[in-house]
Amino acid sequence: MALTDPIADYLTRIRNAQKAGHRVVEIPSSRMKRSVTEILYKQGYILKYKFEDEGPQGSIKIALKYDPLTKEPVIRKLGRISKPGLRKYSSATDIPRIINGLGIAIVSTSKGLMTGKQAGRENVGGEVICYVY
To answer: What is the pTM of this model?
Structure first.
């Protein structure tokens, strides 16, 4: 089966694993998925991750993060913004603010993948991949 939107699949696997209460989720790897994983880790949305280069594609193992008191997932919502059928681009000044700055938008720029805040600081626009809060 051919996958038309691997980033949407990545986000869905994380969403489904959290709903099922899993601690770890394994996802097929790509350069963009690795960059998104690193951003989620640096922003504190996942506990840890490991890149495994076994097989032709490799995989990413992500340890999901839950609130210690309520056992609720730290990631409340994951959403895909730019899709293969309709790409969404923003200039540096028009990058969306997610929940008034409490969430992050992940943007693909000419300088690589970064959060919306970083893209605004570096004054670069690009394709708005997804949002997380």
So the answer is: 0.94
